[in-house]
Amino acid sequence: MGTGRRVLASVTSTNAEAARIAPTLMGPEWILAHEQTAGRGRRGRAWVNPPGNFMASLVMRPAEPPQQVALRSFVASLALFDAFVAATGRTEPFALKWPNDVMLNGGKVAGILLESAGMGGAGKVQAGVSHIAIGIGVNLVAAPPREIVEPGAMTPVNLLDETGTLVTPEDFLDLIAPAYAHWEHSFTTYGFAPVREAWLNRAARLGETIVARTGNAEHEGVFETVDEQGNLVLSTAKGRQVIPAADIFF
What we know:
- The chain is an alpha+beta fold.
- The protein folds into two domains: about 5-200, Bira Bifunctional Protein, Domain 2 (BirA Bifunctional Protein, domain 2), CATH 3.30.930.10; about 210-250, Roll (SH3 type barrels).
- It has helices at about 15-20, 65-70, 70-90, 160-165, 170-190, 190-200; strands at about 5-10, 30-35, 55-60, 95, 100-105, 105-120, 130-140, 210-215, 215-225, 230-235, 240-245, 245-250.
- A hairpin with an 8-residue loop joins strand 6 and strand 7.
- Helix 3 (about 70-90) packs across helix 5 (about 170-190) and helix 3 (about 70-90) crosses helix 6.
- The chain is globular, with a radius of gyration of 18 Å.
């Protein structure tokens, strides 16, 4: 069964639309919107999307347990990287930032937001996942103003200004959809190991000192690796620390 595709003029958010249509789907489907009236980023932050940028979600009904499903953020990151390379013919300006951003010339050009809904019933130890929406926002032609970004965060950049490459949202979907299908096949066939290896080969600041903020705590250390569960591993003055969720600052 192939992957569906629908292009909409306006939605509140593509992830919200994904949740709405998920129960009716027979297979995975891409949703592309030309406008989002209530786009969201990680941790409930607003996602600003000027016209001409890429706003899309891939919705699917996965069979794996929740921890495995969440690893698709790495699958989506690799698909984004490959789509950018296909669009520009260049690899060197791009890097992947844990857990789910793409960098271009040191700035943030794209972000990923995974949202899922559970399923299950009485007596189940752990609920499964009824659907997952992989929301992707890409600054194709414009970036949000620097002043709306929190202090210390990466500067937003856009593909057109940084590389001179003009890509429409529909054309970018034509690039990222097959790239995602490739890495999804690898993930479901061989597990996380090859995805993890490919992601680390494209990782920003691997082997360098970074800062991870988790709530009110701040951890500084050398970015050692990403482990088999997708956690960030830092080598700090207090020893090796494994961090499942954080905001990263360079």
